[in-house]
Amino acid sequence: MVKLEAYFKDLVEKSHEEFLQTAIVRSRTHYLTRKEKNLQKLKGIQDWAEELKDVRRATLDNLPELVKQAKQAMEDHGMHVYLARDGNEANKIISELCESWNAKIMVKGKSIASEEIEMNEHLEEHGIEVWETDVGALLLQIMKGKAMHPTGVSIAVPRETAAEYFSKLAGKGLPPDPPTLVAFVREFVRKKVLEADVGFTGANAITADTGSIYLLTNEGNGRLVTSVPQKHIVLAGIEKVMPSRNVADLYVKVMPVYTTGADAIIYLSVIGGISTSNDIERISVTPASGPKEVHVILLDNGRTALLKDQDFREVLTCLKCGACLMECPLWNVVAGYFGEHVYMGGFGAILTAFTRSLEAAAPQAFTCTLCGKCKDLCPMGIDVPEMIRKLRQRIVEKGIAAPHERIASNARRTFNPYGEPREKRFDWMKS
Fold it and tell me: How many CB atoms lie within 10 A of CB 279?
């Protein structure tokens, strides 16, 4: 039976870390201010989100067929496509590709899927040097830290701590000034990209009709990683496959405001195959200036089982924008420590249960307050609280974990695990 006491003790300790609390408040304030401004500016955003939600839900039953179509479309455009049943298989494909190329250095765009399968650790064990190129991901890499948010992995790391670690990487003192720190990362990343043998990215969306891979970034690192190295590897969960470019374009319009509060993404890259030149007598020649090869791994790792489960399947429509976390009472106290694995928060408990195990999801499942704010804020309208209730039931029925007696008693008395009266809890959520 899973022991929850150590996990809850760690949460209590994190809730008293002054630097963590400072970073959470700063990040949340900046995000909400920007988001409110741009929601007023983008009058159609809710309509776009509703349309995207309807399409995503309607196509869940067709997902296996869409994956087949996407695979064929990508192969028709010269890409190599693999279906990986689990993380071990995906890691094996990636390491064997790197070894076949005698690759020594890989540069990465930010990828939750790679964290899910612990790819960096696997490649390093095989003698391959891996470098993140996103500012936040690079910071966590050198800190050996935990992601604090799906899209802003280091937003709960205060600038003072960032300066300390980047100074060590730079070999000189850097001030706790974000522009200075980002300028250092820019130069460091550009140097590593030029040295790299392989570029690696995830995918925000893959279209079934044309096999187009959509990548959204604000820093521009994605374009460096996908253009300069000789080889490009893509890892994406099968739920990233969307029916058409029209649906992917909806995603591009909806995602930024919920992710960072911005009105639009800074860099949108659409990769449709191997770089090609038709400029000499209209003869098609590949490759041109881009990578010589593109290899795409479509990852299952529990997603097919999730798709077949009527209680939880709608979580596959999740955009992983993290908007729910910014209003989550618990995230606002402990940030990404709300969950021991890569997928944090309430929605993350469901994903952890299927991509890892029920045992791994148990601590998260019994931490959620069931306040319902995540459902209200989710652009896809996912009923996470109801899913958490059902997940808890399964965990208890299988004897994996039992609610801590104190938590169970609190829940019976006050309908939340912390023992706060309902009136007090609502005041807490407003603060």
Answer: 10
